[in-house]
Each structure stands twice: as structure tokens, then as C-alpha cells.
Amino acid sequence: TLNNLAVLQSAQNQLRDAEASYREALQISRDLAAENPKAYLPDVATTLINLSIFYLQAQPDRDQSIALALEVLDIAQGFQEIPRVMNDAAKAVQVLQAHNWEGLPPPEE
Questions:
Q1: How many Å apart are CA 83 and CA 64, to the nearest integer?
Q2: Please, are residues 47 and 3 in contact by the beta-carbon 8 Å criterion?
Q3: How far apart are CA 7 and CA 52, in angstroms?
Q4: Is 60 in contact with 17 (CB distance < 8 Å)?
Q5: What is the reported pLDDT for 109?
Q6: Taking the C-alpha atoms of 92, 37, 32 and 3 in order, what is their torsion angle to the nearest 10 degrees?
């Protein structure tokens, strides 16, 4: 719910509140994932990509955005069978491309 609230707050240009909501959602998800990674790391990935996009578009912070996107890709390695995690990973690649990040493999032909 906090993640969704942050999306709404960001859309309404309530950037300080949005960032706080994303951060709180991320902390809760990380705490839950520490106890049960298989159940909650997908939620961590979702909040991470939303926060990464927030730092790309709403409140630019290249370093934060890239770090969060890379963490999504790291999490996705263990959840390739879960479509929503793969969707988050695809968004992470798009974020990295938007930042012209050099560490991406060349696109598949």
C-alpha cells in the first residue's frame, strides 16, 4: 500500500512525501525479505524499480537511480520464473539505458 501511495504522491508532485513513502515501503519489504526471501524479495524489487524511476524522472539522482536498478537486476537473477520480477528487471534495463549506463550488454538481435 505504501508503494502505491508513493506512486500517487509522485504523480501529484508531492515529491518529499513520495520519497518517504517509497523508503518506508522498501524498509518494510526488506525486513520481511530477511525472514522469507522467496516470498518478499519480489516486493523489494517492485519498490526498488519504482524508486529508481522516481530518481530518474521526478527527483533526478542518477547515482541512486542506477544503484536501485542494478539491485533489481540482481534480485531478478533468482526469480526468473516470476513474470512480475522479470517485468521489473526489464524496467531496470530501461532506466539504465535512460542514464546511458555503460555496463549493459548489447541488445539481442
A1: 25
A2: yes
A3: 12
A4: no
A5: 46
A6: 20
Q: What's the rounded Cα separation, in Å, for the pair 81 and 33?
A: 18
Interhelix angle 62-76/83-98, nearest 10 degrees: 150
Q: What cell does 35 get?
A: 525472514
What's the CA gap between 82 and 94, in Å, rounded?
19
Distances (CA, A) of 64 to 6, 32, 107: 17, 22, 24
**Cα-flanking dihedrals φ and ψ of residue 50, to 5°?**
-65, -40
The C-alpha torsion from 52 through 58 and 61 to 63, rounded to 10°, is 20
Least confident of 51-55, 79-83, 98-102: 98-102
Look up the pTM and report it. Answer: 0.91
- The CA distance from 14 to 99, in Å, is 24
pLDDT reading at 105 higher than 80: no
